[in-house]
Specification:
homodimer; mainly alpha; MgtE N-terminal fold; CBS-domain; Tetracycline Repressor, domain 2; 3 domains; 3-stranded mixed beta sheet; 65% helix; 6% strand; disordered N terminus; transport (chains A, B); magnesium (chains A, B); transmembrane (chains A, B); CBS_dom (chains A, B); CBS domain (chains A, B)
Chain lengths: 480, 480
């Protein structure tokens, strides 16, 4: 029993209603595993409480969690249970929870929350996160929420929304710590103590600016603590990496990753400092961009764990229909040479192996190329070298596979010409796969398109067609 | 001309040899695009200087870059050119450049650098980065380098190396800022000023510890600047997210991403604070882990932009050989029903379409499942719901594709039974694909294996086999 309840123990009923300080701790241990992932058992406990209509228990279970975990919990619940959880959420938390939610859950929660509550919740967020949420509202509700907000917060959000989606302007906070070149460490510390509210909740670097408010250097705030008060900033500042306000978020992520930045100043075209981006916003971008590549290569967009069957069908069917068209074109190679197959059915058995191996080899090259392009390790400076290398790899892999498959074919069918046919076709297809797998993403990148999107359908088409075509034309020449 | 050279303009030759202060700036502009990626033209300039044997120019070009960009440049050069660049590198920079290099380049540079130089270079690095480099050395050189290092640095590196690879213990720095619970903001600031060298170069949070040195809270150092000197730390500290020293780096990355951490304390099993992990080390882990999934799904490991043809063949051929085996098993379904094809060659044309669409549908499900497992959005709490949803999506996609392909088959072959055969086989295969695409990664995850590795070969085998088998058995029943 906790100390706070000792004076009440003469009435045992009190022990049942007074919340114990340890109780929250215990629930937290139950909620999260050692890896800080939400336990399935905890989700069950929430569902049980909702089934029993026990709002008190529901509130207790939900409030034992961090906002990020509440957002995670919502994703594991079905829509009916979420409707019961939303009303018990603490309004002061709501903003942070909304900011953490998956896209389609966020829409659902936004629709279910009154505009006035939403306005209050968003005032608690940084301007970049609040703008992100506002952007998801329909026109009518957006106007209502903005009207209900504090003047300053509204202006900050509207300025942020004026920048294009997925650019530095959208990621940046408009609050930051800047100091003129001629200040000392002491003057800067005093300024921070006075500025108080005008500073962001968290800041990591001081940006040193010239009279036109252009950044000329930066220093981590730990340097303010470790250097003497009289040290001029100009003496200890380091070169600064500026981010243009219209830069794509993928580029911003690349720069943060490359130079190990914690924060960076954002500048307007003239060079004027207008905001800062911090690494915590970038971690999410890096994960999302890498995951987008996985999905794009598979020809699918992620509709989230809460998407309906209809949403998912709509996101996947177009790709499959496109695949039906390309595959129909690929098999036309078979249709043209049908007579060969009628004469030797073994060709129908062996063709798919040649096609499939080509497809796999092409996908290998493609995945490596997409990764290298994304991390800017492949560009005009080494493209020729990489293409030649991929062709050599294709030739070697093709030769080894051709020998293995040719021998297996001979053992099985006792037909040397058939074995040679299959072997030659395999070399041709693996080399074709290598060429397609490296040239398709390079060409898309050069055209300013995302190399992960649509290269895989092209490479699959190419290797399927080549697999059929090579087997059947070589057969037509050798086996007549 | 720059001001520094004006007094020399009476002798025009001087203008050619005296380095201008702007020159470094100009080179930097030439080197990097607006997106901070290395310009291919700059790589050409380096190659030109090396070809001319102009060491001075080479040194100038290389030293205009940031260490991260030098590492990037090395990746774009071929081995011969790298050999010319390595000797011109400033020894004080060498450590940082080595830390940034791609794995196989790093090995090359480590071999080319004398142990004494290496020991000096590594002393400039944080203990985690230095340990990482030491770990790449062969036994003999490792002993030499460690022996040449400063006592304290050697001890720190040896302690770090005692932890397993890819765990929190390896990522953490042993230097951090901790303060007892009863201290005030002012006492903490005074401690920082005195501690000086014992603190890491960069730190973002103060960890508040109890007498047993267990973290009980944390606060960002910006709070030291914005709060009054007499404020007790216990009053303003926030709950802290501890990382266990043996936690896998992928879990650490998940926690940093989820809770938007900038730094976190690392604790030993007893709870004692032993180090800190900062977000700049985690950004790289997040990118690497996501990229590993792309490559694993494609059945390839990245050997880097500098790998030899042999390295690449060795990394890709085993997967292709495995694919040859599984595909041979899959086509055995065709071999068994060869007579069907001999009777109706159209089956040989249509089968590959059914197989290919199944493969694509399976890959879509697989990519989404792997992503959801990686971000812990799919677990025991919602697995059943997701499986049912995938099956429904498979059935709907299968029906639509079956109708389209069935009609096309009828138009082309004027054979209703053939059209029905293909349609039924397609539904069966797309549903099979959905089941395989979701169950394979779930099963691998449950077995504690990486769901991205080897699920794709299983799903491809399954859909290829099912594609052939379904078309031919249904044909055997309907078309006799």
């Amino acid at each position: 029993m906790s100390r706070e309840t000792t004076d009440l123990t003469d009435d045992p009923r009190h022990n049942l209603v007074i919340p114990e300080p340890e109780a929250v701790e215990d629930l937290e241990d139950l909620a999260l595993g050692d890896d800080y992932a939400l336990n399935p058992e905890y989700v069950e406990m929430v569902i049980d409480a909702a089934d029993r209509g026990d709002t008190g228990r529901l509130r207790e279970l939900v409030h034992a969690l961090d906002p990020a975990d509440v957002a995670d919990l919502m994703g594991f619940l079905s829509a009916g249970y979420r409707e019961e959880v939303i009303p018990v959420l603490d309004p002061e938390w709501l903003g942070e929870i909304i900011a953490e939610l998956d896209d389609n859950l966020r829409e659902e929660v936004l629709e279910a929350t009154p505009s006035a509550t939403l306005a209050k919740a968003l005032e608690e967020l940084d301007s970049d996160d609040a703008a992100d949420v506002i952007d998801d509202l329909d026109e009518g509700k957006r106007a209502q929420v903005l009207a209900a907000m504090d003047e300053g917060d509204r202006a900050a959000i509207e300025t942020t929304l004026a920048y294009e989606d997925e650019t530095a302007g959208r990621l940046m906070q408009r609050e930051f710590l800047a100091a003129p070149q001629f200040w000392t460490v002491g003057q800067t510390i005093d300024h921070v103590r006075e500025a108080g509210d005008r500073l962001p909740e968290l800041f990591f670097d001081v940006y040193v600016v010239d009279p036109s408010f252009t950044p000329v250097g930066a220093l981590p705030i730990s340097q303010l603590l470790t250097n003497k008060r009289e040290t001029p900033l100009a003496e200890i500042m380091e070169p600064v990496t500026e981010i243009a306000v219209d830069m794509d978020q993928e580029e911003v992520a690349y720069i943060f990753d490359k130079y190990h930045l914690i924060s960076a100043p954002v500048i307007e075209p003239g060079g004027r400092l207008v905001g800062q981006i911090t690494v915590d916003d970038i971690v999410g971008v890096i994960r999302e961009e890498a995951q987008e590549d996985i999905l794009a290569l598979a020809g699918v967009s992620d509709t989230g764990r809460d998407a309906t069957v209809n949403d998912i069908v709509r996101s996947r069917l177009p790709w499959l229909l496109l695949n039906l068209v390309t595959e129909t074109i690929a098999v036309s190679a078979i249709a043209i040479f049908q007579d060969q197959i009628a004469k030797l059915v073994a060709l129908a058995v062996l063709m798919p192996i040649v096609s499939s191996l080509g497809g796999n080899a092409g996908t290998q090259t493609l995945a490596v190329a997409v990764r290298a392009l994304a991390s800017k390790e492949l560009n005009a400076a080494n493209a020729r070298r990489i293409i030649v290398r991929e062709l050599s790899v294709g030739a070697m892999n093709g030769l080894v596979l051709a020998v293995v498959m040719g021998m297996a074919t001979f053992v099985f069918y006792h037909n040397a010409k058939l074995a040679i046919t299959v072997g030659l076709a395999l070399v041709a297809n693996i080399v074709t796969a290598a060429l397609g797998g490296i040239l398709a993403p390079l060409a898309l990148e050069k055209m300013g398109r995302d190399p992960a999107v649509s290269s895989s359908i092209f490479v699959t088409f190419l290797t399927d067609f080549m697999g059929f075509f090579a087997v059947l034309t070589i057969a037509a020449l050798l086996l007549r």
